[in-house]
Amino acid sequence: MSWVTEISQPILLASAAAKARKGRRRARGRNIATYTFLFMVALFFCLPLYVIVVTSLKSMDEIRQGNIFALPHTIDTGAWSYAWLEACVGFQCGGMEAGFLNSVFIVIPAVLMAIGVSAVTGYALALWNVRWANSFLFALFICAFVPFQIIMFPLIKMTTAMGVHGSTFGVGLIHAVLHLPILTLMFTNYYRDIPRELMSAAMVDSGKFWRIFREIILPMSTNIMIVVLIMVVTNVWNDFLVGLIFGNKDSQPMTTILNALANAPTGTAEYNVYMAAALETALFPLLIYFVLGRFFVQGISAGAIKG
């Protein structure tokens, strides 16, 4: 029997090696296909951004040559300063700077009100025995998907009656109201993962609603806070319709000014200025994401958003 073993052992080893090589080839083929697909997706999203950046750094004479993918022969940053300080919208020639300040004054109250109210509401619905909690959550779920156009006119009447229509605070208030349903659902879903034993011990220790929220719940909410912060800031900053409807000429955000600048019916089309203004509008949410991006990923993986 020893000679049979001596003959079969090399054959088995060769077969195992062949299978291993075949598995490596399959894995390599899957990796190549995956990376090719990811490269195509990245190219699809990055190519327009590349065109915007290089166009903003060209002079109009170079843009008129028609090669939108070519790098600028001479880098010209004049369009950036002009778009920020001097670009005219109607009879106002303050550039994007005024819109930037308006957007900041809109984002701050929107973030504070939306996150503050929804965090407390989600905490109460998830961890305290609130009567009709499930019915309330179902109503919030329905409200989260109601089109804005349906409730637009009642909101206009409400903000006018409150005296905040046409102000940056009024625009921020509308954004906060529109974000409350989905944020409350997210906070409720997140807080339901907190162990009941911890809440029971906290109630025995103090039993106070606000003390438990301040000393126990908030320190455990870093992940979800980062997630909703990035979501709210991005949505509010990039919004156009709410700022257009609820703001006036002195409280319009950057997106509204950008649209008016790019669609001006008169004058010469200055594409480098338009591209520079678009990039200036997008820089703030991009900066927020780059600073807090890794916390955003941690928050999602920790269960802040569940399917």
Any overview of this molecule?
The radius of gyration is 28 Å and the shape is globular. It starts with a helix and ends in a 6-residue tail after the last helix. The chain has helices at residues 2-56, 60-63, 78-85, 97-127, 133-143, 148-162, 168-191, 196-205, 209-217, 222-238, 241-246, 254-262, 271-301. The chain has 2 domains: 2-47; 78-301, MetI-like fold, CATH 1.10.3720. The chain has 13 helices and no strands. The longest helix has 55 residues, at 2-56. The protein is mostly helical and 307 residues long.
Proportion of residues in helical segments: over 70%
Q: Number of DSSP helices?
A: 13
CATH architecture of the largest domain: Orthogonal Bundle
Q: Ranges with pLDDT <50 over ≥5 residues? A: 303-307
- The shape is globular
Classify the secondary structure makeup into a structural class: mainly alpha
Task: Give short descriptive properties of this protein.
MetI-like fold, 0% strand, 13 helices, single chain, mainly alpha, 2 domains
Question: Nutshell version of this structure?
Answer:
The protein is mainly alpha-helical and 307 residues long. It contains 13 helices and no strands.
Give the arrangement of secondary structure elements.
Elements (H helix, E strand, L loop, with lengths): L1 H55 L3 H4 L14 H8 L11 H31 L5 H11 L4 H15 L5 H24 L4 H10 L3 H9 L4 H17 L2 H6 L7 H9 L8 H31 L6
Helix pairs in contact: 1-13, 3-13, 4-7, 4-10, 4-12, 5-7, 7-10, 10-13, 12-13
